[in-house]
Q: What sequence folds into this?
């Protein structure tokens, strides 16, 4: 009797393995074979779901964004006050645990292979579009419409810097230190809204 496999769960396992490989080895280390080895199977384990590495990267983009939305939704559950929602968003953007740090390393490693590759460019454009849209929607009740673009740029630059600092210096950029910077940013947004 054939074994029943949950296709969605298997795809998720493949994509999670791909994230780990990207974090550890970058794009040059990502192959069907490396993903299959991480999962303890043969390359057909991956080729059954993906025809090419490009297809896997496109699916990884959608998966990462959907996973991020679910995490943010959980973090914001029952948080209604606009400044508290903004703080939750900023804390979600910046890696503060081993899994989110791994995902940030994967993104940084992937960015190094970005030169002219439309699939990698697509990944970053979609992620950036998602993050900026979330920042804009969280800022809308807090700052005048004329200030939303500048506030979005400020917070995006801040979160990019914090994320990079966390990857480069995880021992010194503790969650407490990150939280202090985020609190200062929220205070700055509150001051600009007054």
A:
């Amino acid at each position: 009797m054939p074994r029943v496999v949950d296709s969605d769960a298997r795809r998720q396992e493949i994509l999670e393995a791909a994230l780990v490989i990207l974090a550890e080895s970058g794009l040059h280390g990502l192959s069907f074979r490396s993903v299959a080895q991480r999962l303890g199977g043969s390359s057909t384990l991956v080729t059954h779901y993906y025809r090419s590495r490009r297809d896997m990267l496109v699916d990884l983009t959608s998966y990462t964004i959907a996973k991020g939305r679910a995490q943010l939704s959980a973090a914001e559950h029952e948080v209604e006050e606009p400044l508290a929602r903004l703080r939750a968003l900023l804390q979600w953007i910046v890696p503060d645990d081993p899994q989110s740090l791994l995902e940030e390393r994967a993104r940084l490693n992937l960015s190094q292979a970005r030169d002219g590759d439309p699939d990698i460019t697509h990944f970053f454009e979609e992620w950036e579009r998602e993050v900026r849209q979330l920042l804009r929607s969280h800022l809308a009740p807090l700052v005048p419409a004329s200030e939303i673009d500048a506030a979005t740029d400020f917070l995006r630059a801040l979160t990019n810097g914090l994320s990079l600092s966390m990857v480069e210096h995880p021992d010194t950029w503790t969650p407490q230190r990150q939280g202090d910077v985020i609190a200062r940013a929220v205070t700055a947004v509150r001051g600009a809204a007054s």
Notes: The chain has nine helices and no strands. The mean pLDDT is 89. The domain at 54-193 is CATH 1.10.357.10 (Tetracycline Repressor; domain 2).
